[in-house]
Specification:
Rossmann fold; 7 helices; alpha/beta; 24% helix; 9 strands
Amino acid sequence: MLCSMTRLPFHKLPAVVLALLLPALAWADPAPADLAGSGPYKSVMEVDDTLPTHTVYRPAALDKLGNTKLPIVAFGNGSCRDDGAAYFNLLAEVASHGFLVIATGPIGGPATPVPRGTRATTPTQLTEALDWALAENARPASKYHDRLDTKAVAVMGHSCGSMQALEVASDQRIKTAVILNGGVFDDYINRPGWTIDKTSLSHLHEAMLYLDGGPDDLAYDTAEEDFKLIDGVPLFKGEMSVGHMATYDQPNAGRFGEVVSAWLQWQLKSDPAAKKMFAGTHCGLCGDKDWKVTRKNIP
């Protein structure tokens, strides 16, 4: 659970200030036994010896997958935090639906605020996660050998991590990107190591999901601006009035976990039931009173 400091008026704080605060406000990392998710596969969280800079979420019983192959998802943490367990509710939920999810940072990494002007993690770590997964799928001795769907790849991130996802979104291996309570923040443009800016949004090639926490979310205006600039790709924006930290501290990440998992199942597994949440005149979220929906290029 979030500590009592979450009573601070987040929506009144500048993005840079909040980016420094969020690591100290995050909920406690879980014990592995706490992970499960609502999907058909119980999920586990671990650090693989061959990728010590990241945390892996996956179905626990890989030997029971049969011919089912796991799509690959790389995730960037809010505040670019170096703790791969910081969003365990969300990532365990996604993994439980049959995905390999790789978050930046080891389990229980640094929880102290990141010094202003620096970043604990970098966008290249998302690319490293994808490179590692593809290599492990090809390595005969790996437990992931021939178990991954190398054509079904996604990047996603929360807040600062969402901008990391956008930074690497030009990678042609990526089929979809999920932008959570974020987008191209003006505070990050022109900082060392970052090349993404608003003009980059016109060059995206993959289907995009944007979720934000409504007007009290510090990323609200950023997401609204991004939506106007992105065109030529399927784009779904969902807004729920829950603020910047959304529902990630709830079991299975609450409604945000439900929507993210469904989007990935549609985009990476072509699941027809999941598609109904987003597509069609009467899409599932379109008629949900808790959500405000805007769409482009989605029939």
